[in-house]
Specification:
4 helices
């Protein structure tokens, strides 16, 4: 990802971010502003990257970036930058925090939010044991809160089941 951003996006960065994305001031030749943020669910890597950097691109430049991005491993979704929240699950004395955002595909994306709770040490050790596709959760945006909470609790319970020292 770093290579893609450095080679395909960084040349088109504006030094100061736009504060009005409905009426952005575009760099000469650009058609729109891309504001990229990544969440890496692999422990040991920076969780958030590229936040608050605006890339002034043409459609052809974006298409080239998306083509290369599609070749990378992982789950890639477009999210609404104006929607962001948190969710928590408690197990015994441990708290597990999640970052929540809405995808443009109409789903709520939940990823474990490292550095926010006392369950981090355990999560850092156990999340790599999950298959990559299970390191996040996607749910309908309008899912009932009780269902969301139950699914998050099931995810944490599955994670904890990977640790032989932890019993539920």
């Amino acid at each position: 990802m770093d290579y893609l951003v450095r080679t395909l996006l960084k040349p088109y960065i504006l030094d100061s971010p736009n504060w009005d994305y409905h009426n952005p001031v575009l760099r000469k030749g650009a058609e729109f502003v891309l504001n990229l943020e990544t969440f890496d669910t692999c422990p040991g890597k920076p969780f958030e990257s590229y936040y608050m950097e605006d890339y002034h691109l043409t459609q052809a430049q974006l298409d080239g970036f998306l083509y290369k991005l599609g070749k990378l491993k992982g789950t890639h979704v477009f999210g609404n930058p104006n929607i962001r929240g948190h969710a928590e699950v408690f197990r015994d004395e441990l708290e597990f925090s999640f970052l929540v955002t809405h995808t443009l595909g109409g789903e709520a994306l939940y990823v474990y939010y490292f550095g926010q709770s006392n369950g981090d040490e355990l999560a850092l050790r156990l999340i790599p044991l999950l298959p990559p596709a299970e390191r996040h959760l996607l749910m309908p945006i309008d899912e009932e809160l009780s269902v969301v909470q139950r699914r998050l609790e099931e995810w944490v319970d599955r994670l904890l089941s990977l640790d032989s020292k932890f019993s539920l």
